[in-house]
Amino acid sequence: MKIGIIGNPNVGKSLLFSSLSGVGVEVSNYPGTTVGLLSGTICYRKNQLELLDLPGIYTLDGPGDEECLVRNVIQKKDINALLVIIDAVHLERNLYLLLQIAEYDIPLVIILNMMDEATNQGIRINTEYLSKQIGSPVIETIATEGKNIDKIIPVTLTEAKPATITTLYDRHIEAGIRSLSKVYGIHKTEALLALEEIETNDELRDAADTIIQEIENEHRMSVHQIIAANRHHAAKNLANSVIEQTEVRERAGFDRFLTRIFPGIPILILIITGMLFSVFILGTWMEEQIVILFDNFFIDPLLISDLDPFLKELLFSVLIAIEAGIGIAFPFVLTFYLLMSYIEDTGYMTRAAFLADRTMHHFGLHGQAIIPMVLGFGCNVPAIMGIRNLTSKRERIIASFLITMVPCSARTVIIAGIVATFIGIAYAFSIYAIILVLLIITGYVFSRIIPGQQLGMVLEMPPLRRPSLYHVIMRSWIHIREFLFIAMPLLIVSSVVLGILQYYGVIEIFQNLFAPIIETFLGLPGFVSTALLFGILRKEMAFETLVVLAGTADLTTVMTKIQLYTFAVVSTLFVPCISTIAVLGHEIGWRYALLISVYTIILGLGIGTLVHIIGLPYL
Amino acid sequence: MKDSIMDRSYCEDILEFLFRFEKEGKKSASRQDLISVSGIAQPELNLILDCLIEKNTIVILNDKEIVLTDAGRLIGEKISRKHEVLECFFYEMLGMPIESASEQACLIEHKASDETIDLLDTYLTRGPGWCRRHRKKNEIDTMICNNIGAFEEGDRVRVNLIKGCGRTRRLMDIGVLPGETVIIKRKLGDNKSLVIEVKGVEICLSPEIASIILGEKVL
């Protein structure tokens, strides 16, 4: 038996899902989309039940990825029951979606969540009458306290019923629905979708077009607008008939400060920098421990063992790949996700998005994009995973280009380890300045050449809440697992390939091949190309390999200051690491992942050449 | 009261018919002419004519030739113009059949104010928004019906119109529809990013989204 969980965003859907399904959660991607679907299996009285957490949506009849996905799941009819999660505080708004779901004849159970908040605000809902009106059972819950959660599955198994409530549409719409369903033998919901110009076949579209034109001429309103108005009207009536008493309460005073320029923006900067520093400090420390652990227990024993050299090389490649993967995953990605999930669950990020909206516009992005951009400083991987919250493909592409240029903590290691140590702090900051300028130019240019129009931001701002720690940890765990699944295989494969190439001396041939280019354009010694190549596996490896190849930790003995500076610039800009490329391919497609890689290679080499030419007299 | 209005409209009708006859070149009209165009029976017509003579709007020459006085001609001309403007509006703009357009014009012409007819006339000849007077009225309209970025924090605004087509779906789905009242919760500096409250939920909007929502302040 399959049970779907559906509802508006911010109604406590995921919390309910994880309380119902426990730890056995799997992340699967719905074919053809980048939208993730969570599914979990539970056992109840020897029945195996599959729970499906559908993405939060405001409407079923929308053109977006999420709406399409939910519609597909519902239309396929392989769902035996739907749990419709409704925010009791905003009953009317939530009923809008419920009325649409009701049209699909799927057995429903209505979960009236956040009853505690509703009671606090003086809202009393006549649940019995609501259940009678809708025709499906209604359960009052408080997911954060676990109240009545245990009732959900038993009620779903025994009492779930398709809703009997119907929305009355404008008579022209009703006539349109009737004639379309009669002529084409389709369900009411399909006729409505056709009238709203979503998901139709050619024949149906032609027929619908005539009706749409007639209706629009008559009403001077789009059909979608009329249907939406009818549904809102029905939702309002239904809500008014079950809400017994309301008193309006103002939001807490603290929240009101967050959306003002002052002190909102200083608070935003404080939170972002605070988060970056914690990720950076905690992450670097943890990564160090992991690397030491790995070196001591696996890599060093392997290197001194007398295995067959080829096997040794192979094992070595696998080990350093695992080291690189874990070295990114736990220290940076996990720390970051823990902090980020916590802040996200408070609802603060929407306030940040609101404040940043204007600035992001110059880059063809919206306020929401601030979140992944900030993540990028910690690690590009979670940042790229974060872009799926952006509304349009165009924004996701622009954001990907920008994020891969943001210096992550690994690149900071290069900048700090090479430039700050051997040349000076001021020069280290000059690299950040170069990157910032390039970022602004890239954003500005790409926002003008990448096709697609800039839609505005319409973002719900939920009230601030205290996050549940359990939920935060659960979600971070799901994300980290997702990361490991995507990045690990690629990391291991590419590492092994590089190892084999090195074993057979191909790397040396490669090095000799590229030496002239690197020497003439960048003014760097030939062996640097190998360091750059290994930097693709994990960014700091460029630094580490360079030290190994140079044969000394004091790099100034083998390279001049300008060479070191150029190397730092090139390896910072040059190609995102393998994990980032893997996630890029996963989120926006391999074509764009390749394009971004090529762009950063050109940028790295180009800027490196410029630095070499311009900087020579100064250093 | 009702009778006097009825009387007045009958009187005006007769003056209107007389004016039309005059325009067609007939200096005077007989009782029979009036009966055939107006459909009023002889006894009532006599009463109406008496009333018109009393008001000094017609004279009857040789007991049969009915002629308009200057005052009568003025009224007749005015009513006739009202009839033409209304009929033209019903027929040309609203697409009513000519018979019912004329019939309706006949009923409304007695009640419509001169100003209404003037405005309607300019509307018909120059299209909407052309005449100075009309434009002035429009300016007042847009002052009330501003994009919601123009209101102050705390204002309650009734949405009147959402411009554009494709981008409005999300707005409609969260409940921003014409007729819905929203509250401006926060305005960010002068860049007009907004937080509005609709159906008890706070929503932040980019300036370009705010600029397509037109509304008026409600108290």
Can you lay out the helices and strands and say which pair or pack?
The complex is a heterodimer of chains A (619) and B (219).
Chain A: E1 2-7, H1 13-21, E2 25-29, E3 36-44, E4 47-53, H2 65-75, E5 81-87, H3 91-102, E6 107-113, H4 115-120, E7 124-125, H5 127-134, E8 138-140, H6 149-159, E9 161-162, H7 171-184, H8 188-195, H9 202-219, H10 223-242, E10 243-245, H11 253-258, H12 261-304, H13 309-346, H14 348-361, H15 370-378, H16 380-386, H17 393-405, H18 409-422, H19 425-449, E11 458-461, H20 469-503, H21 506-522, H22 528-535, H23 539-550, H24 561-573, H25 578-588, H26 590-615
Parallel strand pairs in A: 1-4, 1-5, 5-6, 6-8
Antiparallel strand pairs in A: 2-3, 3-4, 6-9, 7-10
Helix pairs in contact in A: 3-10, 5-10, 7-8, 7-9, 12-13, 12-15, 13-20, 15-16, 15-17, 16-25, 17-19, 18-19, 18-23, 18-24, 20-25, 22-23, 24-26, 25-26
Chain B: H1 2-23, H2 31-38, H3 42-54, E1 58-61, E2 65-68, H4 70-93, H5 98-108, H6 114-126, H7 132-144, E3 146-147, E4 156-162, H8 169-173, E5 181-188, E6 193-198, E7 201-205, H9 207-210, E8 213-218
Antiparallel strand pairs in B: 1-2, 3-8, 4-5, 4-8, 5-6, 6-7
